[in-house]
Amino acid sequence: MDYKEKLNELLLTTVRQNASDLHIGVGRRPSIRVDSVLIPLAKEAILTKEDAEGLVFSLLSPDQKDRFLKLKQLDFSYNYEDKARFRVNVYIQRGFMAAALRVIPSQIKTLEELNMPPILHDFAKLTQGFVLVVGPAGHGKSTSLAAILDEINHSRTDHIITVEDPIEYLFAQDRCIISQREVGQDTTSFHDALRAILRQDPDVLMVGEMRDPETIATAMTASETGHLVFSTLHTNSASQTIDRIIDSFPPEQQGQVVSQLASTLVAIVSQRLIPRLGGGRIPATEIMLTNSAVKNLIREKKIYQIDLVIETSVQEGMMSLNRSLVNLVKRKEISLEEAEAHSLNPAELRLLLERG
Prior knowledge:
The chain is α/β, with parallel strands linked by helices. It has helices at 3-16, 49-59, 62-71, 120-123, 141-155, 190-197, 213-224, 238-247, 251-264, 292-299, 306-311, 321-330, 336-342, 346-355; strands at 21-24, 31-34, 37-40, 73-80, 84-93, 96-104, 129-134, 159-164, 177-182, 204-207, 228-233, 265-275, 281-289. It has 14 helices and 13 strands.
């Protein structure tokens, strides 16, 4: 089998079927994910050990192959001719090679096209502060951040620097200078890139993911010193995000972290992509803005009370996840079953729906 040719066939099928992901693994047919559902490609043969290895190695450059065999896993981006880009993770499972490929659309969509709340436009007008977009893997965090950054790109004259692992969306520079750095290729780590970044005259920073306390601390310091910093975390809500950030530091440093968070944090957007009744997916969002009440709760470490502030601050532009889900159900965008499945508090969700 010509594995490079077979790989191109699979990538083309993924793009044509409007799938979000392609999965390659031993003992099963290649599978694609469409509207959150995994679908085996019925016309494809079940992959053997040799097939999976051939397909995985077709994705890798010689240097990437060496690193993969050493590390047993590797993140990188992959261009399929001029048709599509993919974020790829190759890994070992039960001694066999496997790969997960996420489609990265070539066009950066606007916030309107993504059906995101209008208040996110306000984040593109900020000149300083710390903005986080959080949620489970595969629920559009990077896509939402790309939309905000591209809005800045078209409306301001700033220097935007991104640090990503790997680079996902490629920005076409408009009014801004945009420097995109890929971990592994352009820098050794998020932390190393951020340590040097303040000497590169940035206005806006985007850190693909905050994976360790050093990266979090440097990002907060950058936002303290007059920069606008965006990043993501794999957390489920605003309150959980704040707890996760504080708890990632040793007890003796937590006081300083709490103080920095209270002074730099501007907003946390938590999002889920919910299967839409008419096909496709639509975001449900929780939006927390750091007003004086939220800042005080952070300083007093009463993070558990933030959910109540979000629920009672709709007039300020805040939104609880349940209220967002209820709105989508009422507009007949999503089913009640999907709303309950994605809610962190289904009982409260049903109560909100009953109240009308």
